[in-house]
Write a structure and sequence with these properties.
Blueprint (H helix, E strand, L loop, with lengths): L11 H24 L4 H49 L7
Helix pairs in contact: 1-2
InterPro entries: YiaA-like, YiaAB
Organism: Streptomyces achromogenes
Protein name: YiaA/YiaB family inner membrane protein
Length: 95
């Protein structure tokens, strides 16, 4: 049976790029909202909308990751069962 753990597939550079990209996008949006020539109510509404969008995106990413990890676990259990059946099977044994 294969006991190897599921490997992390993203590199440190990819993680760093994702964090930097998120930070730049959030900062640019915040600066854009602050410099917008509109009333404080409109800028406040846009800021709350951006925060809601960010938290929703994080939640969606977590749900997708959790589903994928659950699918991998089920797949690994099925693979282990198949390997056990194949190991116990004797093709020359009479039925």
């Amino acid at each position: 049976m294969n006991d190897a753990p599921v490997r992390q597939q993203s590199t440190t550079a990819f993680y760093g790029q994702a964090v930097a990209s998120f930070s730049v996008a959030l900062a640019a949006t915040g600066i854009g909202i602050l410099r917008l020539e509109a009333s404080a109510w409109i800028r406040g509404f846009l800021a709350i909308a951006v925060l809601y969008l960010v938290t929703s995106a994080f939640t969606l990413a977590k749900v997708i990751r959790d589903r994928q990890e659950a699918g991998q676990l089920v797949s690994r259990v099925d693979q282990a069962r198949l390997e056990k059946l194949l190991a116990e099977h004797d093709p020359f044994d009479k039925v």
